[in-house]
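Limitations

Structures in this collection are predictions, not experimental determinations, and the ligand pose is part of the prediction. Treat each record accordingly. The example that follows, with cytidine-5'-monophosphate as the small molecule, is included so readers can see exactly what is and is not provided: the inputs are given verbatim, and the output is the predicted complex.
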Amino acid sequence: MSVTVRVPAKVNVQLAVGAARPDGFHDLANVFLAVGLYDEVTVTESDELRVTCAGPDAGQVPLDRTNLAARAALALARRRGIDPAVHLHIAKDIPVAGGMAGGSADGAGALLACNALWQAGASRAELLSICAELGSDVPFSLVGGAALGTGRGERLRALEVGGTFHWVFALAEGGLSTPAVYREFDRLNEGVRVPEPVASEDLLAALAKGDAEALAATLSNDLEPAALSLRPSLADTLEAGRAAGALAGLVSGSGPTTAFLVRDAEAAAKVADALLASGTCRAARITESPAPGATVV
Ligand code: C5P
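Predicted complex:
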């Protein structure tokens, strides 16, 4: 018996970051949008817990119990007193350590798959609570669509999206560590009073209307200066995408993937070609949003 779950990547169309909290996390107003790049997690009964991964970036994925897919299986097994003897296979298409929640996707996917395989009967609410224990972005990987995340990003309110948005993602060489980017954010803001993070009403209205121009005018990522400070070459990628006619470009989450909002599929192809030709990224991926959350296939 095996179960396969497909889980989308995300881009943060707004990432407002507050000051560091006593627990080291940062309060956020995090507007997540799921995009149509997917990992697939397949769980199969086995004699012991093991993780395998296939895909262009598979070599960078940890296959031990630090992998979020393994941690998700262990968390559900512990709650139910089940032996977590399963083989978790990840067919990876989401960039690794790219700021697109690829690891979180695998955690949410493994959790949903194990819940089905073991007939563990965890409710949506229990699954969301396990997701929140696994990581700040994991609950959103489960629900998909669009949502406003508050707290450290794990408390979600679903958002309306009134149309399809077209995106080009420029994949960078190597990854960026999310904790390192937050540390750089703290360093850049030393001595500065960081305002409370608040969701932009204009941005939420643009999403609800499906208005790409209005969304482009309101995209923002407070982690972008920190990601650019750690990886200055991303400025060249942003410039190349904007020059090729993207409505807007920004760093995706903690980076180093950059995201370009474009008017339509034709503009997407043009921007992707220009990004590749510029030599400022290792690959360009075209996709649309919103995308559904974790789904058994
Ligand atoms: O929750 P998650 O494990 O994905 O977070 C990874 C790291 O990112 C945290 O250890 C923390 O350094 C940083 N982080 C943060 N504030 C958040 C989310 C993540 O500082 N809201």
